[in-house]
Amino acid sequence: MKNSEAILERARNVFFSQWEEMLRLRLLVLKRCEQEDIHDLRVASRRFRATLKLLGPLCGNGSVPTLVKQIRSLTRTLGDLRNLDEALAFFGAHTEQMDLLSGLMGRLADQRELEQHEIIKALEGFKAKKLDSLVRAVVAGLTMDCLRSLNMAPLPSYLSNTSISLFETIQALLPAALCFENSEERHALRIAIKKWRYFLETVSVILEQDYATPLEQLKKYQTLLGSMNDMTVFGLLCREQEEAGDEPGKVAQLLEDESKRHFEEFVVLAAAEPLRYSFLI
Predict the structure, then answer these.
(1) Which of 190, 223, 235, 250 is most buried, most CB within 10 Å of its CB?
(2) C-alpha neighbours within 13 Å on the C-beta side of residue 279
(3) For 231-249, how does the pLDDT look when each residue is reduced to its tens digit (9 = 90+)?
(4) Domain spanning 1-152 has what CATH number?
């Protein structure tokens, strides 16, 4: 019982600290609107939403869906800018094709400026005080009495079962993702890996366990899968900009070649470092 109480206390602390970090970054972006701060806020919002989904069912609080919806909306707004920044960095690195890409990059830069204005509007309209009261209610509901009233499994068992479920999803998606044509399966695998990574990052604090090795491996997988997904996103951005260039198809070919290169690295990684289950209590 004492161990469960201690785990719950750490769960409350990590949940609230993630919320406070999100609020801190929001104010920082509103103050100086620097690219790194915006992207840090996006990651913080995703991490907090993952923890909210993990711990929310334990508190019996009806406000959890409202919180999830509000944070998801913010994350998506921030994600549009991230995609533009990554696209500008990618195309800017291909100086050998600058004649072809200069027009596209100019339009992407103009779109980025518009997206940045949208982010400021979203952050100014973010109801931080109202949501803060909901977050505090969730924290207050993370108690042993609440777990008993909900007939929940002991917290260590709940976390273990969640971890197994997340890993099983990864294992189910991985074989199909190793076929180049299956981009949708790779997209789903990227999300599944990201969910297990956020889970282990949070649980490492709650359970006071070291998951450095599996987290480093998950980062490698997520980075390669993310790079391949970026090529798909960049292609959509190009089509939205109606970019054909002087030589139609060159931009598309550039993206396909890069995607194939990352895919080959992904296949090598999966063979050399297969994902193995790891969860300590």
Answers:
(1) 190
(2) 20
(3) 999 999 888 876 545 444 7
(4) 1.40.20.10
